[in-house]
Structures are given as C-alpha cells and as structure tokens.
C-alpha cells in the first residue's frame, strides 16, 4: 500500500536488472525517498568508499506518496555518497519523472557497479532494459531527452539524465529531469557519470494503491483546502521563489561578491520585478509563465525567455524559446554572488546549467570564489585561459558556464567546487561552504538560524534542510534559533521521505501531514510517529557523516562568517555567533556536548 | 510626519506598485501602520518589518513609533527554495 514493495536493482558491471522485494521493516522506520534511500546506502556501502568508484550506489528513490493525488506528490530523490562533500548526499527533484517511476511500479532503483561503456536504462512498467548509450554520450540533456523519447516512440515518457558536466565527473554536476528540473546538489550527476550511466527513460501506466482510498482522499482534500486558499500558496505562485531577493537584500543577508558584502547595489535589475518588465528589444518580459510539478497546486516554477538578441545566444535557436526561468537560488548565485546585474546573463547561465547538468548554486558560488582568487592574484589569466574573472564581468559568467558545463579549460577547475578550487590555489578560507558544499543565498551573519542550519546540515550548506526564515527575518539574535532549526530539520527530513514538497511550509504542520500517511500506509501514523521518523532519518545521516570524519568536527562555518563583522544591513558589525547556538542545538537533539548522539537517543530512535 | 515605505512580494492594497510615502500623525505606532497597508495575509502570519534596515520584533510593534524620514520595509514570511 503506497509502496509497491518492489525495488529495481541494476548491476551495471554485469548489465543485469533484477526485481527484489522492498525491505518493509526498513520502510516502516524510514518511510521512503530520502530516509529509505539513505538506509539502503548505509546498509550496502562502507562510508569510506571513493564516491566516484563503482562501490558507490546511485539510488533513485520515490516516497510512498509520490504519484498519488496528494498535493505536491511529485518529488523524488537521488541518494549516494557525495563526490563534492564526502558526506551522505540526497538531492531532491520535482517535475514528472518521479511520479512516472512510481506509476511504473517501482519504489526505488538502485544502481551498483560501473558499466564498461555508456548505457541508459529504459523502464516500461515492470520491464527494465539497459541499452547502449554511445550515441548519446558527449551530448547535452537538451539534445538527448527528445531523441530518447522519439527513439522509444513515446512522447509521454519521462527522462532523467546527465549532461557533459556529469560525464566529465564535475563534482558540482546535477541530474536533470524534464529538461529543467534538477536533482541539483552535492554532485550526484558526477556519480551517475562515474557509472557510465547517461540516462533513464521511464513510462508507467499503473497507479498507486493506498490503504483506505476514501479516507486518503478526504485527508488529501482537507490538506488542499488548507493550502489552496492560503496567501502563502498564492504568493509563491505569483512571485515564485525569486521574490526572496528583495527580502534578503533589504535585510542585508544577500551574499554578494563571495560573501564579502551582504547587499547588492544591482538588485533592482535582476529581481522578481525585473523579470516582468517588457524589454526594449522585443517588447517581451523575461517571465513568460509559470509551471507546476506533478500533482502540485502551488506552481512556483518559472518559465523564462531570454532576449533573443542577447549576444551569447545569437544564432543559437535552442536558447531562444521559453524554458526553466530564474528562481531565487540561481539568480543569487549567478547575480549578486558574482557581482553581476545583467538579467540575460543570469538567464543564459541558468539555461546552460540545465542543458549540461550543473548545480546552479554550486556553480555560481564556485565562480564567485574564483573571482575573489583572481582579484587577490592567486589565479591570473594564465590559469583562466585568458578570461578576466573580475567580479561583475558578464563575459566571465557567460564563458565559464559553458566551459564548466563541457568540462573544458578552466571550467575543469570550477567543476571541482569551491573547496577544492580554493585549496588548489592556496586560499581555503575563500570557499563559502560547509562540508564542502556551497552556500545558498542566505548570509549566516544576518540570518543566525540559517547559519546554524548550514553548519549542522548533513549534506553541507543547504537552505532546504531547515526553515528558520521567519524567525531570522524578525530578529538578528541567536535566541530561539536552535529550537526552530531542530524542529524543521526533522520535519523536512519527514517531508523529503514522503514524496511531498517542503514548500507548503507552515501551512502543513505534521498534524496536517499525518492523516495522509495514516490513510495510505500500513500501520498507524500519528504526527508524533511521523516526526520521530524524521528525527531518526536525520540521526542516521549524522552517523554516516561521523563515520567519515564529517560529524561534529564539520559543524562550523567559514572564518569569514565567524570572524569578519558584517559591513551593512540588519546585522552590521555582527558575526554568525554559531558558538552561542550549537550547545543548545546538541542538547535539544539529545546529543552529547561534543555533538554525538547519546546511547539513550540512539536507543529511543531504534539506532542503538 | 512623512515616511517612505517599500513592500516586497505581496499584494499591497495601499501601494499597488509596492512603494510610496505615508503622511502620519506623530504618535502612530508600527502595528497601526501595518494595518493601513492592507496586506493580504494568512491568519497568524508574522510579517518581517524593518525600520531603517533594522527588524522590529513582533512584541515591540504596538509601542514602536516612527520618526520623520524613516524608511519602512515590509515583506511576507517568505521561505527559500
């Protein structure tokens, strides 16, 4: 019920695809998607493996509510050891691929080993087949997705694939589905590339059964009745996440020029208003529409159209049509972080990241680090191949995104991610990252809760592992931040394991979510049981990281946030004050003072 | 007393363009100004409000007075993604 109780195991070394039963004992404890995928990774691999070796797993996981009528039920995740961080990775995507996989009758696909030559996986309901992908290797996501659909004669099939960034094992490579949705973070695309796996094409004609259909639909309706009329949903649909830029800029928490500054003077040229203003050249705005993922009533996704006269796209038809548009995180990373206020340059970078499969946040933030290395003379045009990497140089962004996407020239260095790049050139302090993963668009000196969330995030700096936004925007103090971070970490671990999206946020508290689980899944699911599962999942990830030396010792922030006072904004003169929050956070988690789960906590969660 | 106002990412009944000026009596408090803006909110939502860039906690808004030339920024309890 909700689970198909079936995993597809693909042994790439031997070229076999086998069905095996889902471990239902684990499913009862770890639910699905992020939680259950992580449990399988933990059980099947040694944490010390090289993330780019055949020993790593690439786990494609749906949640029990993926593909159901539950609003936002289109989420799926990629779980593996991260080649960017060395920590446990779980990268979450929307679109339509996850629901299609679930409707094909599979809860999860586990890839192991490495194919001798490039392959892709075709799933058509219960039939799974590996095919030669040599005709697709070396080509972009945008080229191969329509070709695969045409080859299999099914325009309704769904594709997830890697671009050239994943093939070249750039440690910031993403897996892209439905042309412009991304399992973006932690370099999961490089793991796919390391296995010589180019793509998955899926067609599912079945459905998802639930324990009590009538009660499930009543629970779904109750949740929708709460979400749909909410101003939160209407705002997300109308303005998208891009609206965040005015908030962070006003507050002074918009990381700018590699976090040297926290407010960006060019923000009005690239914010959510700017994308609605008709251009002089063709009379059209950048924003041409919105798009929803499977089963979603929010539709936060943006569809954008670059100025067809923009120099980087002249004569290149593939860029001159509507495609995935600017969201807050990509706009922040290409824009303020690199000091760039050219809307079309941001749009171009976004398109290339989708086309070649790059994580937009890590790419922009790593280029930003390279720009600071360039500015202090640690790298010169000799290393960059003649490219002037000064902050604000639009040509640097336009050129480097193409080179990084293809894994060519200095793009290979950007593909290392900021931690390795800054270490290579002798300035590790210039990497704005936690556990080696680059910051999203929130500056920890001003948003203290987000600083704690970054420092303790199991997959490295992340804005989706906790949600202390409101508390941060209403107070720059550290007070109360540990509590909201801990609660939302557990809640988001739960939501990420269900097949649902975190964006309903506080409109759906655990008490609103639990009735859907209780009606869909075997057993009784209260809000308390669901939240305990979230805590268990968080703690399991923590134990994995501790085993690879990325536990408490990595609960920190860069020196810039810990020692350099903010120059402007609400937190002017302040640092991140992490040391004030960590002890309370550990205590709330039932961890020792040095950041290890106590035996009692492990026993309570069934991990001891 | 005149203040300038910026409202981000939300429909504002008072200022459809998202910005403008308010002419206020001297003893008006922040919570009253926020009511005047006619912001569309969900029940129990807390809107971040910055006066000259500094956030004003919820509990201080019923007492907080503004001064001539102050700049008020208001935005919804937006979360990232």
What does this structure look like?
The complex is a heterodimer of chains A (608) and B (81). Chain A contains 24 helices and 17 strands. Chain A is globular, with a radius of gyration of 22 Å. With 81 residues, chain B is mainly beta. Chain B has one domain: Roll (Ubiquitin-like (UB roll)), CATH 3.10.20. Chain B is 9% helix and 25% strand. The radius of gyration of chain B is 12 Å and the shape is globular. The chains are: A alpha+beta (608), B mainly beta (81). Chains A and B meet through helix 8, helix 9 and helix 18 of A and strand 4 of B.
Based on helices, strands and strand pairing, what is the structural class of chain A? Answer: alpha+beta
Q: Which class of chain B in CATH terms?
A: Alpha Beta
Rg of chain A over CA atoms, rounded to whole Å, is 22 Å
Strand order within the widest beta sheet of chain B: 2-1-5-3-4
List keywords for this structure.
heterodimer; A: 608 residues; alpha+beta; Aldehyde Ferredoxin Oxidoreductase Protein, subunit A, domain 2; Aldehyde Ferredoxin Oxidoreductase Protein, subunit A, domain 3; 3 domains; six-stranded mixed sheet; 24 helices; 38% helix; globular; B: 81 residues; Ubiquitin-like (UB roll); five-stranded mixed sheet; 1 helix; 9% helix
In short:
The complex is a heterodimer of chains A (608) and B (81). By secondary structure, chain A is an alpha+beta fold. In chain A, 38% of the residues lie in helices and 13% in strands.
Task: Summarize the helices and strands and which ones pair or pack.
The complex is a heterodimer of chains A (608) and B (81).
Chain A: E1 6-11, E2 16-21, H1 24-30, H2 33-44, E3 58-62, E4 76-81, E5 88-93, H3 97-103, E6 108-112, E7 119-124, E8 127-132, H4 141-151, E9 158-161, H5 164-167, E10 175-177, E11 181-183, H6 188-194, E12 197-203, H7 213-227, H8 231-239, H9 244-251, E13 287-291, E14 301-304, E15 323-324, H10 328-334, H11 343-356, H12 360-375, H13 381-384, H14 394-406, H15 411-414, H16 418-424, E16 433-434, E17 437-438, H17 448-456, H18 469-474, H19 481-495, H20 510-520, H21 527-547, H22 559-563, H23 578-589, H24 599-604
Parallel strand pairs in A: 1-6, 7-12
Antiparallel strand pairs in A: 1-2, 3-4, 3-6, 4-5, 7-8, 9-10, 9-12, 10-11, 13-14, 14-15, 16-17
Chain B: E1 2-7, E2 19-23, H1 30-36, E3 49-51, E4 54-55, E5 71-74
Parallel strand pairs in B: 1-5
Antiparallel strand pairs in B: 1-2, 3-4, 3-5
